[in-house]
Amino acid sequence: MVQAYILIQTEVGKASTVAEVISKIDGVIRAEDVTGPYDVIVRAQADTVDELGRMVVARVQQVEGITRTLTCPVVHL
Q: Which residues form the Transcription regulator AsnC/Lrp ligand binding domain (predicted)?
């Protein structure tokens, strides 16, 4: 199992809507709107890194109102 944080910038005023829509995507553990340089932070999981990448590109980045994403895989050092 691979987990990651997905940091999301949205159009002005769209953070709560984006977080709500993303929270319903299969594999998303949690999606919250936050303050700071990013508007939404998502915790997601998938079986493989490739599946995680496909989820981000095919599902998350297609949500209306998103302007940029940054995916940060969780590592165990």
A: 6-74
pLDDT per position as a tens digit, 34-44: 999 999 999 99
Q: pLDDT tens, 17-62? A: 999 999 999 999 999 999 999 999 999 999 999 999 999 999 999 9
The CA R_g of the chain, rounded to the nearest whole Å, is 12
Q: Are 15 and 39 a contacting pair, CB within 8 Å?
A: yes
By the 10 Å C-beta count (0-12 exposed, 13-18 middle, 19+ buried), 16 is classed as middle
Q: Give the CATH number of domain 2-69.
A: 3.30.70.920
